[in-house]
Amino acid sequence: xxxxxxRDNVIRVGFxxxxxxxxxxxxxxxxAPAPSQAASPALDPxxxxxxxxxxARLFGYTPSRLRYWHRSGLLEPSAxxxxxxxYTFQDLIGVRAAKGLLEQGVPLRQVRRTVESLRNSxxxxxxxxxxxxxxxxxxxxxxxxxxxTYEPTTGQAVLDFTIDGLExxxxxxxxxxxxxxxxxxxxxxEGCRLDELAGTFEQAEEAYxxxxxxxxxxxxxxxxxxxxxxxxxxxxxxxxxxxxxxECDPEQPEALYNLGFLHFExxxxxxxxxxxxxxxxxxxxxxxxxxxxxxxxxxHGDRNAACAxxxxxxxxxxxxxxxxxxxxxxxEDPRP
Length: 336
Prior knowledge:
globular; mainly alpha; Multidrug-efflux Transporter Regulator, Chain: A, Domain 2
């Protein structure tokens, strides 16, 4: 888990003694990032946790493609730390297998049907593309386990598709230094470390800008520049950075959420609701988005819908001061 935790760099609201949203002329400073933000690269690639951005980079996909696979149930990141989903090395095997099948001409719907068939026939197999060996020949998909090689419905094996070399690919693509994208990522990580304190905001900004000069598509760096602008009360500049991030990655949940929060602070409730919902369509496990969507829905007068999102928030984050606020709203009669 080597990327700065995106969830640690989202805008968070302030509250009064009654648990209601408090808006002030100067934004509340964002909380300090979690310790994982400055984590050093894992020496053993099989022991690491990987963000959607890292996995997309490793396999040459867009983050949006991987999020779609997650939403559709094809491939899901199986680790969860600090309210975020991460891919394990075993999950990377599944992504490599899916990519190989697609490159060999197997339609996505056939890959999805195979996954569903394996889940039904092998109840203990939760991530079929990671837990069994995948074989393919054109439009035919086969699997291999201790019982042998078979097609989920016909049992015929034709061509062996292997997933060798993944560890070396992880080291080369995500752990190596030298090329522009790797150096950009190192500058990005430096920015994540430096933006913890107001005294190093300028150095953090410089690090993010260096990252973007090497890799202009590094959308997380743009989002974090927006957060630095927000924390300095440069709200128009923050909005510009969030929109630039969305040009690079239209489904990035953090940029959608932060842009929604800017609208929320301006009392532009309807666009805030729309953006919070878009963030949740991209990542339904985004606890802060559930929380603030519930707040916005309360202000919009839709208490029933707000109640559903308070419940979602508590399911994801059952303890803590924010959970207490969510529970306080639920304890009120949610229906007129």
